[in-house]
Amino acid sequence: MDIENMNIELIDVSKIIIGVRSREVNEDRAKALAVEVKEMGLLHPITLWHSEGGPKLVAGAHRLAAFKLNGETHIPALWCDAKTKAEAKQLEVRENLARENLSAFDHARHLYDWKRAYEEMHPETKHGAHGGRGSKKNEKTTLGFSKYAAQVTDTSPTQISRLITIWTRLCKEAKAELEGSKFANRKADIEMLSGASETVQKKALKLLFPLDGQTARANSVREAFEILDRGEPISAMDKKSASLNTAMREMGDEHFHNLMNDHRQRVLGWAREQLTDM
Asked: What is the Cα Rg of the chain in Å?
């Protein structure tokens, strides 16, 4: 899906179909870009494709929003050679994935959208389809999505599958709350939340994202789960104690004796107190 001859056209912004995007427009970013465009002009044209309903936006939602904020009626655009909606979607998602500072949340979402578009173009690669995963015939013709995406992005197929699984397991309420939040780039938190049932996810969200004016009871998904299980999060000292207990059970005699010698006075003091109480 290469750009056709790099022929730039001025397109009426009111004619451009935006549709459902994998990445929503951030208003603050669009406003900042509008100022930049007004001062320096547009450095990169937007990308469109010829859909049945008219010119459909593929790449450049923030640039288009910036032009509209500036009151511009036309915007420079390039046409891609996508023949189907799925091909256009692939181009959109791959551009988003190439961006710097992409959050773990957005990374998972874009990979999921890319997988759907890829499998629409190559239905034989879907799980359970004839010639799909596990089929020698399919391996010789069309790669399954995880392997294909891994080659394109220089990422392991396991990592690709893992991120897609995270996205598919998050409930819709979790996706709405996580987007743009401080947790969006905390992959461990997002993965832990996605591993819980929908009911537990919703309960954890109430602890992480309280109503306006209230303080969050949990600062991580782990803390939220601890509160749900125990009524309160495990303290930092309790966590250290648990780790020490585990280490002491696993250490050999030599290391144990060295540890006791390092804390000899405290151990003897504790022993005397126990004898006095008997």
From this structure: 27
Q: In the prediction, which pLDDT does 180 show?
A: 84
pLDDT of residue 100: 63
CA pair distance 22, 39, nearest whole angstrom: 29
Q: Which of 109, 111, 104 is nearest to 150 (CA)?
A: 111
Residues 6+ apart with CB under 8 A from 36: 66
In angstroms, the CA 273 to CA 16 distance is 80
The three-state secondary structure class of 25 is coil
The predicted model scores a pTM of 0.62
Q: Which of 182, 184, 227 is nearest to 203 (CA)?
A: 227
> Can you list the residues of the chain whose pLDDT is less than 50?
1-5, 130-140
Q: What are phi and psi of 230, to 5 degrees?
A: -115, -15
Q: From residue 19, how far is each of 44, 49, 67, 102, 106 by CA, in Å?
A: 21, 13, 18, 22, 18
Secondary structure of residue 16 in the 3-state scheme: coil
pLDDT score at 97: 78
d(CA 224, CA 230) in angstroms, rounded, equals: 10
CA torsion sign for 108, 114, 115, 120 is positive
Place of tokens 């450049």: 60
The tens digit of pLDDT for each residue in 151-206 reads 888 889 999 999 999 999 999 999 999 988 999 999 999 999 999 999 999 999 99
DSSP output for 202-239: HHHHHHHSPPTTPPPS-SSHHHHHHHHHHSSPPPHHHH
**Measured distance CA(198)–CA(175) in Å, rounded:** 12
